[in-house]
Amino acid sequence: MVTLGPNQYGKAEVRLLRVNRSSLNHSSAGHELRDLSVSVALSGELTASHLTGDNSAVLTTDAQKNTVFAFAAEHGVAEIEDFALLLAEHFVASQEAISVARVSIEEYAWERLGDHSFARSAREVRTTTVIYDTARHDTGEPLVVSGLKDLILLNSAGSEFWGFAKDRYTTLAETTDRILATAVNAQWRHDQQDGSAQVSWGESYATARDLLMSAFAQTRSYSLQQTLYAMGTRVIEGLPDIAEIRLSLPNKHHFEVDLSPFGMENKGEVFYASDRPYGLIEGTVLRDGAEAELGGPA
Amino acid sequence: MVTLGPNQYGKAEVRLLRVNRSSLNHSSAGHELRDLSVSVALSGELTASHLTGDNSAVLTTDAQKNTVFAFAAEHGVAEIEDFALLLAEHFVASQEAISVARVSIEEYAWERLGDHSFARSAREVRTTTVIYDTARHDTGEPLVVSGLKDLILLNSAGSEFWGFAKDRYTTLAETTDRILATAVNAQWRHDQQDGSAQVSWGESYATARDLLMSAFAQTRSYSLQQTLYAMGTRVIEGLPDIAEIRLSLPNKHHFEVDLSPFGMENKGEVFYASDRPYGLIEGTVLRDGAEAELGGPA
Amino acid sequence: MVTLGPNQYGKAEVRLLRVNRSSLNHSSAGHELRDLSVSVALSGELTASHLTGDNSAVLTTDAQKNTVFAFAAEHGVAEIEDFALLLAEHFVASQEAISVARVSIEEYAWERLGDHSFARSAREVRTTTVIYDTARHDTGEPLVVSGLKDLILLNSAGSEFWGFAKDRYTTLAETTDRILATAVNAQWRHDQQDGSAQVSWGESYATARDLLMSAFAQTRSYSLQQTLYAMGTRVIEGLPDIAEIRLSLPNKHHFEVDLSPFGMENKGEVFYASDRPYGLIEGTVLRDGAEAELGGPA
Amino acid sequence: MVTLGPNQYGKAEVRLLRVNRSSLNHSSAGHELRDLSVSVALSGELTASHLTGDNSAVLTTDAQKNTVFAFAAEHGVAEIEDFALLLAEHFVASQEAISVARVSIEEYAWERLGDHSFARSAREVRTTTVIYDTARHDTGEPLVVSGLKDLILLNSAGSEFWGFAKDRYTTLAETTDRILATAVNAQWRHDQQDGSAQVSWGESYATARDLLMSAFAQTRSYSLQQTLYAMGTRVIEGLPDIAEIRLSLPNKHHFEVDLSPFGMENKGEVFYASDRPYGLIEGTVLRDGAEAELGGPA
Questions:
Q1: Which chains touch B (3+ CB pairs under 8 A)?
Q2: Which of A27, A172, C234, D112 has the smallest count of CB within 10 Å of its CB?
Q3: pTM for this model (two decimals)
């Protein structure tokens, strides 16, 4: 009467700090840091574990955690995409029952204060998700998604919103000058057809981040939807190996305060930031011919 | 060179408190409360808004928010599934460009202290998501998903974990007695074939919640996977209209403290609760013949 | 040119789960749980550690953590006040340099589902802070403070707010019917003069919690200040050993939605809950003759 | 039988965004932003409000919020200390019953991307608290405290911890090489004797922040206590108008992972970051002759 559907399991949020003490390849004499949160999710033929409690196919989540630490020691952590690929391939290769490994990593940036001293910098978090699926990727190419979250941007000019549909419940005034603010959450998928080996993940990330910011800053906005599309387009156009980018942009409302009760005029200078509710604009931008693989509504 | 892929937009986390002052249908003379967070996401033919900034098809997220409040006033809030259905059908019906409306609601429970006095009760949050998709649901049946999150459960006996795969990185000791704790996050999909009109959402929710708790408490566990399957099975077997249930169960580790350095023995009585990392077990349980529609890995 | 002022150090948020397997004193055959977060702060003659890095007087925070676990094993955890007293006295007695120990504990409640199964219950957190100060407490009586936080209460009737001062910036309308909601954060100090040995901390806590809730529910409110005072008064009057109670009550605003743009009237039934800003009302209520020792503005 | 003790009330977390569009004093043609969270707490003769519900002396928290916005419009926001002083003096001067005003402000930094475009920068939050107390400050000098929080720092070398006290519960190994990481939470009090008018709050803040970071980076640490004292000393010595600084430094533990089960050696390169429990080191550093006014244990 009952069957097991899609399932996966793994260790989430393994907080790894990797210190590189040798720094052989760098002019700096100092240490280097990689500060990560690594999450692993495995799936495959795990019916027995669910139905009978037979765990013989289960690589423990504790061992997954240990593997993250051991691999960090043995291989170091280059870019997070590299480290996720290494781990994902290992989990699929080493366990007969496991056919899909999904490794997601968040990286927290640090700024150097001295040879061995650092300050957490940048509010945004760099992310990656690698999916190694033996069934799906006949070519052996894992899916590599890079991204960022919590990049908070604001335009204090150049944002309009008017000409929208009006129904019985529409009271919003049209405006040609509003604050536009968001916390960018973006994932972009690398096209592996041309060979991922050439991609320099770190440079690619820095470029994508800059393109997102410059598109946000330079687009005269008639809606956050339009800004989203401009941001996605800029990344697709600027980075040839990216086939798809998905953006989730909360509209962090800043409302102009009504000062008229105090006999004052608000010349677009005093706003209150509202926590909830907020608009949420989500969309995917695709290179021509690419298919949407990053989810979202049909 | 670039095209727009899947997209949606809407107002998120509209915090609505609905007080029912009449309570005509109730023996109690007092008020009744519904405390909700309502999120709306609409999609359809919105290319113009993204590409040219033409907003003529955009029902503002502000109007969506207003609609939530106005509908709460006009129709009241019965069960959250009813309210989500009402809103979703309205948004699709009223806007030409909108073909899909997704309405998600969280409900926070209150316990009565007096006729007009209440205390927030229960840690868990009741949830629903209704998807009204004109294209997909030829029969006009919207997808109705009910659920809960943050239901924290713990077994201090009856949980084992052994017989698992061992690789180079496996150091975990086998055990026949461990703490098993989780925060249940569950969504279950109602089968609309038999007509949703008959479902009493409130009773169904209470039953599903009880079944989840009793299955957790009564299952001798050989893994959290097995407990997950037992919980899902119990709900499918106990509620004929539920076709599918998806569970996401963090393994909230409680590790036995090593007291031997102090010349003491830990007889399974002193544990420390660890925040991160944690195991994360996710899976879907299906009624025979049902298809998995609630996501998750393939 | 520079001197060291007040200082303390310790281990914070030791997450302890104590399972009582024997339950000898109880009719239930099942286990019992105590789920705590324990924080220790020690002070005394620690100048050398600060100035020269001489740590010879420093009991490590790691040892403090170990002590929490070892004491839980050896002595069990009766009420959190008892456990905090035990720990505070130990730290002061065992370390020459330490003259003051402050032990704070949060307790999370669980509801029984079965002999060995539990669900987290009650949103509020029970708290205690014990301060054992060799200098101040000549009598050897430590300061014992009990409390709770995150007890969320709401009155949907019986709350007015009018007759307030008006200045140039006052726009708030007077009302004789508003929602009054808060998250109670309270600490109350036990008067040790009569001997703390007699106090049954668990019963005292249950009584104080009930008094706070009933005072909130039964007071016709003309301001949250007045409700605060009524709540404090009820506790002082109902529990003879309590000399002082300090309450911090955020005014969790629920604003009536203006439905007039939609041709509808809001009959006090539709509100939106606002996150920020919020009012914050703080005050101490004292038994006649008692002095305020729990802080707050002069 | 019962009396009212210390009390205060006010509006907390007013989220103000002030855009300066003219930028007359700046070479940049662009806008300038001030992004603040302002909290007000007033106290004085408010017994009637508590005891009888007579609100005639109560300036509503809503009016306090309005005042924040109106003052931002009328006076602009220079440095947060200036704005807090302006508000605190206003509240005490304008309301007969109010004798003490405490205004606390958090400021969130933004980095310029373009003339009207900004990105949230820096993880740390700049803070101030101004207390204007008519009774206490005979000279009319309000207390001005500046500070910061969430400045996350890490040393990957130069930190030792040994020679500490050992008791029965001490198991920690001594080390001459550990990670030292913290999230700096600091408040420093400006000495108003010399006239606060001369203090350039912005420059003073930047200097204090730099001194805290450089002291952390440059101090060979034998304990976090010693680092705390070095940080405080550096600020007192570098900024003549600062009389007192209070630091609260969580010891964000990074533990070296034991790789020996995998036949590997950890050469101080692989650590896991632990959330809880954590050490918490708190202390005040004073200029000779200054008294501790910023709280903390005796």
A1: A, C, D
A2: A27
A3: 0.96
